[in-house]
Amino acid sequence: MLLRTVFLVWLLVTSCMALGANDLFQLIKQMPEAYAGVKDYTATFTRSEILNGKQRPEETIALKFREPLQVYMKWLSESGKDREAIYVKGRDGDKALVHEPGWISGHFTVLLPPDGPTIMSRSRHPFSEIGIGRIIELLISTFEKANQAGELEMRDRGTVNEDGRNVRVIEGILPKDPAKKYYCYRAIVSIDENLKLPVAVKVYDWSDKLIEDYRYKNVQINQGLTDIDFSPENPNYAFPKTRINRR
């Protein structure tokens, strides 16, 4: 009788754990549907990365984003202060427009491939992977692959209040084996409970070292952004008319 009781308790506990993990995974899976209604957004984007084994300075950027893939960024942090960049997929020869303030650099706009060496020397991701939608794509592709293989562990880290918003924090743990070809060992995702969208993600490599920390604050959805928000002709921007091409 005692053994039967212990077994039933164990079965109940493990079932609840499995249900909890499934519910957490559903929070991830609902994000594409939530994002489907997003036409544009503004946010304050902060990133901290380890690139080529070295910690890069934390950057804070004013971000405008419109689908399909149109980006305007202005650096607010000391690292890159007042740099501006625009990338509209397929326009300008499919290159990013970058303006660097400075005595010499301030006089021209540089055209850079979105995944070229200059941009990739400053970030782990090309311009074409900027934005909340790209985070969702990466999370879904990674977590679904691991879940189907029975190799995904989900942990609930609870709900916290950040910037006046309730955010559910979920941790996804993958095999600690780079040969499995997953994106990372583990990722901690913060999901805005109102927007149903990820507003922060921390990514750890197979030595459990934090290599990517991305945060979106003050997210404002569907602000009615127009072509001028992604044009170097915007009078509020500082892109010189003189252009040069670089890699």
What can you tell me about this protein's structure?
Helix content is 22%, strand content 36%. With 247 residues, the chain is an alpha+beta fold. Strands 1, 2, 3, 4, 5, 6, 7, 8, 9, 10, 11, 12 and 13 form a 13-stranded mixed beta sheet that branches. The longest helix has 28 residues, at 2-29. Residues 1-19 have low confidence and may be disordered.
Task: Spell out the key features of this protein.
247 residues, alpha+beta, 13-stranded mixed β-sheet, globular, disordered N terminus
Question: Layout of helices and strands, plus pairs?
Answer:
Layout: H1 2-29, H2 31-35, E1 40-51, E2 54-55, E3 59-66, E4 70-75, E5 84-88, E6 96-99, E7 109-112, H3 117-120, H4 132-148, E8 153-162, E9 165-173, E10 186-192, E11 197-204, E12 210-221, E13 243-245
Parallel strand pairs: 7-13
Antiparallel strand pairs: 1-2, 1-3, 1-12, 3-4, 4-5, 5-6, 6-7, 8-9, 9-10, 10-11, 11-12
Largest β-sheet summary: 13 strands, mixed
The SS-based structural class is alpha+beta
- Strand % is 35-45%
Bin the helical content: 10-25%
Secondary-structure element string: HHEEEEEEEHHEEEEEE
Number of E strands? 13
Give the rounded overall mean pLDDT: 90
- The low-pLDDT segments are 1-19
* Anisotropy-based shape: globular
Helix run count: 4
Rounded to an integer in angstroms, the radius of gyration calculated over CA atoms is: 21 Å
* Spatial gap, N to C terminus: 74 Å
Summarize the structure.
The chain contains four helices and 13 strands.
